Amino acid sequence: MRSVRTFALVGCLSAVVGAWGIIGAEARDLTVVSWGGNYQDAQRKIYFEPFAKQSGKPLLDESWDGGIGVIAAKVKAGVPNWDVVQVESEELALGCADGFYEQLDWDKLGGKDKFLPAAVSDCGVGAIVWSTALSYDADKLKEAPASWADFWDVQKFPGKRGLRRGPKYALEFALMADGVAPADVYKELATPTGVDRAFKKLDALKPHIVWWESGAQPLQLLASGEVVMTSAYNGRISGINKAEGKNFKVVWPGSIYAIDSWVILKDSPNKDAAMDFIAFASAPENQVKLPEYIAYGLPNKEAAGAVPANLQADLPTAPDNLAEAVPLDADFWVDNIEELNKRFNAWLAQ
Amino acid sequence: MSRASVRDRSRAFALVAPLVLFLALFFVWPLWTMVTASVVDDAVTKVLPRTAVAMADWDGSDLPPPAVHGALAEDLRTAQDQQALGEAVRRLNSAVSGFRTLLTRTVTAAREAPDPAALDFAAVDPRWNEPRFWRAIKEAVPPYTDRNLLAALDLRRDAGGSIVAEEPGAAANRIIMLRTFVIAGSVTLACAAIGLPYAMLAAAAGGVMRALLLLAVLVPLWTSLLVRTAAWFILLQQEGLINRTLGSLGIIDAPLPLIFNRLGVIIAMTHVLLPFMVLPIYSVLIAVPRNLMPAAASLGAGPIRAFWRVLLPLAMPGLMSGCLLVFMVAIGYYITPALVGGANDQMISSVIAFYALGTANWGMAGALGLILLAVTLLLYLVYGRLSRSPQLPGA
User: Which residues does UniProt assign to the signal peptide (chain A) (predicted)?
Assistant: First the structure.
């Protein structure tokens, strides 16, 4: 008798759990994940809302802070609860190699030749070209710094400096400050002596560095006068200039640019809608609206060509800005991030 | 056993079943996953079974024999499960940096080669001429490993297999772990120093005053952690409210360094964690009869003596559980130290988050978590011993 009751109870429970699973998997709306802040506000206006209106189905948007571990956890859970994610180039390379993403349908995107070559891969298509660059408040600094060597020169420019905590970017900037040409940075960093050289250069600036963690912090540090110069994301700089009437400047020579891409998580239940969304966000007539809100370069060549001239000058993809900039070497960081992060932590603790 | 007692027992069990299920699902299982993730090391043998067998005869001193080359090429050519291959690559790259690009290149070559058995590895990538890459594969063959646990303590095995410390300047987990406990301890002391008088005040006050005091503690608890931390940033920065006020009052000439250092971290964390100290002490004090202090006074005890001999012992259980709560929560913090701390204020959670979220190296994240758990349990045992021994008079 009791066993029958237990059996019935277990049956009911599993039915409920099963129904939950099915409803959860079937009824979830297309979920798009990006990087938050005023960037995602702009995306909502020009991509998310118009796409929802066009397709007639709701679209959820969430934000994240990156990390291949997050993607790995979602995909290994079976059915991921995100569909489309905007990822950085390392996450694109890692996740594509490890089978965390669906293959894209390039026919829907209009063909690979419509995009910058660096923005094309089997698993992802470029969404933006963005830069990490030296920035300063032109209202406060009388003489403008022009290079990473100036960033390291505490005699000429007294005061603290902001850098992103972690070896990525800090080591590249240190090498450039030490006289390595932008084109040779990763060649130098690939040798053990190059890494030693970068850490040694960082040693000299260590007491003057304020380390920041999230992208909004460098703006706050500059605005409050806590630092005289900092590395920062270029889109945020032009964003705060527009929103708060600041006069922050970006130093393009020696900046490092990278491409963020749209990907679809493996086994996404909304695969087709996800592909349609990526096609919508990659179409030139939609993509061209982005620089009005935030100064990121456009991977769609047709869109990039149609950006008004007055906005063009602020983009990382403007020819003058690209001239002495360095493309981020995602392969280098995919190989070395763990070891260098360990060493960086030890170096900080010394 | 009679039928009735069996029924009673099974009913009792049914009543606690949800709790047992909950504990098993949300406590035991994740913990077990963490433990196994840190010691199980089968990612490489799963993908490279032939190589593992072929490597058994190789002593690891120089380059491996051609049989190993052939086996590896065959393994890579036939590896179907892309995610499993990714796991293996992640494991190897964590041991020797560079495996990621090396294996990606080699897999492509092995799949395109007309005769994989004769694949020339050194021609695919010169790094295959370095024995350390081959050795890393051999070291990943045993199904269990202690390398994550050792690495979490800044130790490693040398070529001979004996445990040695990492060179100074190569790893800092021990320092960061120690720092975590020092910060958590300081925050606990600061919370106790502020929380005890505050709770006494709240328990002694009545009516609106008490409600206001409790509200003042609770409101921050309902505010987002990031907002509270950002507020401290505004108060503490060089041109911030505190420095400007002190400067305009003529108390200081140059702004005090209040942020991006240990002081800032302790101030911000103490504020965030104060409710966990105040509430347990308050709940104990509110039950203390109000006539005890006048009684002590009537027996000749001054205010300090009455506090020391009567109120403090009675408040002790609350103080102790408050300290425990604050300390436990504090060791897991990393957002606050990341935002208001300096270079030497990062706590171990930020390292764990780097491995778990940043590089998906769950073995290393699990090992660090496990060491943290072990040290915390040890401290808890010591605490249990200490807080049990002094018997209260009359208790």
Answer: none
Structure tokens, B97? 């940096």
Total structural domains in chain A?
A: 2
Averaged pLDDT, A223-237: 93
| Three-state SS sequence of B260-280 | CCHHHHHHHHHHHHHHHHHHH
Would you say residue A41 lies in a domain? yes
* Tokens 């032939």 belong to residue: B50
Q: Are residues B311 and B268 in the same domain?
A: yes
DSSP secondary structure of A330-342: HHHHHHHHHHHHH
Residues B71 and B181 occupy one common structural domain: no
| pLDDT single digits (tens) B85-135 | 999 999 999 999 999 999 989 998 998 888 877 888 999 999 999 999 999
Segment B39-72, tens digit of pLDDT: 999 999 999 999 999 998 888 888 899 889 999 9
**CATH number for the domain including A305?**
3.40.190.10
* B254 and chain A in contact, CB less than 8 A: no
Closest to A175 measured CA to CA, from A154, A156, A193: A193
What is the CA A227 to chain-centroid distance, rounded? 24
Closest partner CB to B97 (pick from A69, A335, A349): A335
Q: Which residues of B touch A72 (CB under 8 A)?
A: 360
Residue A140 belongs to what domain range? 130-257+322-349
Q: What rounded mean pLDDT belongs to chain B?
A: 89
Report chain A residues whose CB lies below 8 A from the CB of B81.
Answer: 99
Q: How many separate domains does chain B show?
A: 3
Mutation target for A interface from B104, B242, B262, B349: give the one with most A CBs within 10 A.
B104
Which residues from B are below 8 Å from A340, CB to CB?
97
d(C-alpha B98, C-alpha B89), whole Å? 10
Instruction: Tell the burial category of B130 from Cβ atoms under 10 Å away from its Cβ (0-12, 13-18, 19+).
Output: middle
